[in-house]
Amino acid sequence: MHTTKHNWTTQEIAEIYNKPLLDLVYEAATIHRQNNDYNEVQISSLISIKTGGCAEDCAYCPQAARYHTDLEVQALMKVETVVDAAK
What we know:
By secondary structure, the protein is mainly alpha-helical. The protein has three helices and no strands.
């Protein structure tokens, strides 16, 4: 199993950045197969625990107060509902 590297040099980063995409995909798949059953896929999902009606004004967020959308506002989900969805 590989350990996570935290002390990357600028040259090492540039070498990865400049590699052809399919070489990167191949290397990632090789490492994945060394550490996981390649016939299985992990499935993840995201849920919005509060949709619309945000009072914050974060420029990057489409739910920010600055944007006017036809989004249906939904209240903050209950903790129990979020925990159940995470199981």
